[in-house]
Known about the structure:
The chain is an alpha/beta fold.
Amino acid sequence: MNLKACLFDLDGVLVDTAVFHFQAWRRLANELGFDFTEHQNEQLKGISRMESLDRILAWGGVSLTEGEKLAWATRKNGWYLELVNQMTPADVLPGVRDFLENLREAGIKTALGSASKNAPLILERVGIADLFDAIVDGNQTSRSKPDPEVFVLGAKVLGVPPDECLVFEDALAGIEAAHRGGMKAVGVGSAAVLTEADALIPGFTSVSLQSLRLL
Ligand code: G6P
Ligand code: MG
């Protein structure tokens, strides 16, 4: 491909916050009297905060008013932020900073494409905000992945056509979003989950630009 831009999901790709989301959502479920599994949690990756809450409540067979839902979502976010606020630059996943710097040197543009409203805070905490040419997150988008909105907007801000963009994702919904936006997608994680990805990497420590251009 004619690689001009890389678009990155945040949680579980650049930082390990997917684990924090799982912990905080589980705490919410436990306080409401039920539990859910890591396997079920895969279905929450890439999904917005309120939509995630709806899915979890359905698993527990719990029905709440809109006001109660907002209160629980706020509580969950507080627990999540307690974990996020302990993060430092050491919490960027291995190889990520080098890879972003290599892209910059190679003249390839970078954008964040995350459903999270906490994305700006997380990027600042781990000190990688200035390595992105564009940041698109849950504050500018209204449709959750697998809708392509977040990536389509990212490509537009960068001024790069979709077929010259490559997306990095740890969520099945995110791979589908990339494809629906006309982009190729590299899965970061396990082949068992990311069945639709165009390529798979375990992380960023040994990714070569050359091999990505072959996609
Ligand atoms: C990402 C994560 C989801 C999370 C969503 C919203 O897509 O993969 O697990 O629910 O962002 O995050 P937020 O930080 O706004 O609650
Ligand atoms: Mg993710």
